[in-house]
Amino acid sequence: MNARSAIPLASAALALLALAFVVPAATAADTVDPVADAKAFQKFFTDKFPKLKPEDFVNGPYSMNEDLHRQWEEKEQFPPYEFSLEAGKEMFTKPFKNGKSFEDCFPNKGIGIRQNYPYFDEKEGKVVTLELALNRCREASGEAPLSYVRDDMAALTAYMAFTSRGKPMDIKLPNDPRALEAYQQGKEYFYTRRGQLNFSCATCHVQSPGERIRAEVLAPALGILNAMPIYRSEWSGMGTTSRRFTTCNSQIRGVPLDPQADEYRDLEYYLSYVSNGLPISGPGARP
Amino acid sequence: MKIWVLESILAATLLLAGAMSALAASTEAEFKAAYAAAEAANKEAGSLRNQWTTTAATLAAAKKAADSGDFDNAVAQAKEAEALAKASIFQATSEKERWKDLEIR
After folding, report:
1. CA distance B54 to B80
2. Smallest CA–CA distance from B96 into chain A, residue
3. Which SS3 state, helix, strand or coil, does residue A275 take?
4. What is the pLDDT confidence band of residue A63, given thresholds at 50, 70 and 90?
5. Do A255 and B102 make contact, defined as CB atoms within 8 angstroms?
């Protein structure tokens, strides 16, 4: 064998060797294992912030910074979301024109069930979020749907979250390949970079929790939805999960999708599932 | 000598004509072509669910410049919008696999 023919052969051997290592790694990465994901996800954050207890993460930036934590404790004496809670309770129990109310659409009249949302609806083959379920309830009674990003929707979810405080997030993955696919799509959305700033959700909430982005302290992704909806001082009002997702997209110069687009529903499913076991703390307050 | 001078004048005239055509103002037709290309690229980004707000803003700026008759600026903005849209397509395409690099395992 001369030197000329030896070089391509050696290259081919090297390429095959590289493939032998690459292919199993790719297969492993493509295997969907939500239980292992959730375990690794929670471990990542508890390792990164060893002083925090798992349940502390639901307090977002307040768990990352002592000064902020003190401010939050003071804020909780007269919580800024209180007005929303009262409005939410009134709306939730007030009958629609047909005599029914939100209480008729939910198990246990909607009390203490926030931790079960979103869920995968096997009949529809899609994820159903709490905000979506609330609007479907209205529409079933002939009422116009509420805006997903405005105060009324936030008031309703605030009330439902408040009645569920302390209950551990309990998102189920039924034995249905479509549920697993929705979970996986949500995961992909979470880690995918988008917008001109080339940020993914994970850029801020996995790589940089506790760090500042301008004046804000970034919240950890773990337990981030347990506190929804939130009163944000920056918004001078309440914000729903839909508002949070769409605003995150526009802040990184990406055109937001419609609230409750399949991608956002799947994202909420994934993020809630990996925070299973952490207590519901909503409604929350954020700087 | 005379022939040399005539040749020089001719060459200079040709050069000047070339330069003038290069500096010629953009036309409405050029703007329309550039805008259509940018819009098509942005539509493709939309089908990938990955449009950028800056693309939309630059397209709007191109339209505004064209409406005021400033086709040089309009063409420049449309080309910028096309470049932004193409970058968003590249991002969406490359992220199909690259997102896994960030995944917590």
Report:
1. 10
2. A192
3. coil
4. confident
5. no
Query: In sequence order, what are the residues at sequence separation of 6 or more whose Cβ sits closer than 8 angstroms to the Cβ of residue A219?
Result: A60, A61, A64, A205, A209, A286
pTM, to two decimals: 0.86
For the stretch B12-36, pLDDT in tens is 554 555 554 455 788 999 999 999 9
Instruction: Report yes or no: A257 at the B interface, CB cutoff 8 Å.
Output: yes
Cα-Cα-Cα-Cα dihedral sign, residues B7, B8, B14, B15: positive
| SS3 per-residue string spanning A7-72 | HHHHHHHHHHHHHHHHHHHHHHHHCCCHHHHHHHHHHHHHHHCCCCCHHHHHHHHHHCCHHHHHHH
Are A146 and A92 in contact by the 8 Å Cβ rule? The answer is no
Q: What is this model's ipTM?
A: 0.84
Bond prior to A61 in cis (omega within 30° of 0): no
Q: Which domains does chain A have, with CATH numbers?
A: 33-77+172-279 (1.10.760.10), 82-161 (1.10.760.10)
Name the DSSP class of A232: E
DSSP string computed for A152-196: HHHHHHHHHHHTTTTPBP-----S-HHHHHHHHHHHHHHH--BTT
Residues A37/A188, Cβ–Cβ less than 8 Å? no
Taking CB atoms and an 8 Å limit, are A188 and B99 in contact across chains? yes
